Amino acid sequence: MQLVSGKEVSNKVKDEIALEVQKLKNNGSKIPHLAAVIVGKDGASQTYVNAKVKACDRVGFNSTLVQLDEDITEELLLLEIEKLNSNIDIDGYIVQLPLPNHINEQKVTESVDPKKDVDGFHPVSLGKMLLHLPGFLPATPYGIIEMIKHYNIPTEGKHCVVLGRSHIVGSPMSVLMARKDYPGNCTVTLAHSRTQNLDQVAASADILIVAIGKPEFVTADMVKEGATVIDVGIHRIEDVSKKSGFRLVGDVKFDEVAPKCAFISPVPGGVGPMTIASLLKNTLLAVKGK
Ligand code: GUN
């Protein structure tokens, strides 16, 4: 069994980005600038956004954090977005999801200038992805593609099962794995909460990508011997044996699934760090696209 270490691959990606930033600085070119908008004080979102800002520091990007009140109106949030769209110093930005219930997420996503859409969530970005045109890939699927490449995991002709059909992970992942490319050329099944015989479908996968949002959902009986398993989930579960009182788990019951796998990504240290590295890559792409 080979561990798919997103931590290791993301460090390599960040080193490469830092070198490029150094070159830009040496040429007197503009330093890439990423902004993040966060609405409210959701703990998990704060953690993710802080990690994104820290990653900017590490590679030498400028970063701006726009922290807004939980009860901001949709109208005012859209005004903040307009400011970021017209600010020529900002190359790309993200609006951390989820947003409070009174705000229409789709409307917000569609207000982001597609040229600055480093999350790859705008319909223009998703359309380009579908057509295999150059553009911003959503950060998590992009990170998974890069990990598969790094470990030379065979994909051509394989059966890839994606569990979960979210707009930001499962759906784009299914498109990327079916592309006429490497990684890709898979026969893809997109399974979800209404799928019949989900256990058998999962167990038929050569490559199982799990983004279903349920702690330790995938058990050993749902995985084929020799499969590749990529775990997108991250959850805090209570654990009195830990000083913090909790531990992090994914959507996969790692201890019992890992021995059956050819490749498996751990949680933490798997997909998570790659998502951030991909966001930085997209920001560099936004700079070059100018
Ligand atoms: N919430 C969970 N994942 C993501 C992500 O990749 N980007 C943003 N903006 N919000 C998220």
Protein traits:
40% helix, three-stranded parallel beta sheet, Rossmann fold, 290 residues, 2 domains, alpha/beta
Question: Could you describe the 3D structure shown?
Answer:
The protein has 290 residues and is of the alpha/beta class. It folds into two domains: 86 residues, 3-Layer(aba) Sandwich (Rossmann fold); 134 residues, Rossmann fold. It is 40% helix and 18% strand. The chain is built from ten helices and eleven strands. It has a six-stranded parallel beta sheet. The protein has a three-stranded parallel beta sheet with strand order 3-2-4, covered by helices on one side. A two-stranded antiparallel sheet has the order 9-10. The termini are far apart. The model has no long low-confidence stretch (mean pLDDT 97). It binds guanine. Guanine binds next to strand 4 and helix 6.
Short note summarizing the structure:
With 290 residues, the chain is α/β, with parallel strands linked by helices. It has helices at residues 6-26, 43-59, 74-86, 105-111, 123-130, 139-150, 170-178, 198-203, 254-257, 271-288, and strands spanning 2-3, 33-39, 62-68, 92-95, 159-163, 187-191, 207-210, 227-231, 235-238, 246-249, 261-264.
Structural class: alpha/beta
Rg from Cα: 19 Å
| Portion in helices | 25-40%
Name given to the CATH homologous superfamily of the largest domain = NAD(P)-binding Rossmann-like Domain
Biggest β-sheet description: 6 strands, parallel
What's the domain count?
2
Question: Mean of residue pLDDT?
Answer: 97
- CATH-derived architecture of the largest domain: 3-Layer(aba) Sandwich
**CATH fold category name of the largest domain:** Rossmann fold
The counted number of beta strands is 11
- List the ions, cofactors and other small molecules found in this model: guanine
CATH classification class of the largest domain: Alpha Beta
Helix count, per DSSP? 10
The N- to C-terminal Cα distance equals 43 Å
The proportion of strand residues reads 15-25%
Instruction: Report the principal-axis shape.
Output: globular
Low-confidence sequence ranges: none
- Widest sheet: strand ordering: 1-11-8-7-5-6
What is the string of SSEs from the N terminus onward? EHEHEHEHHHEHEHEEEEHEH
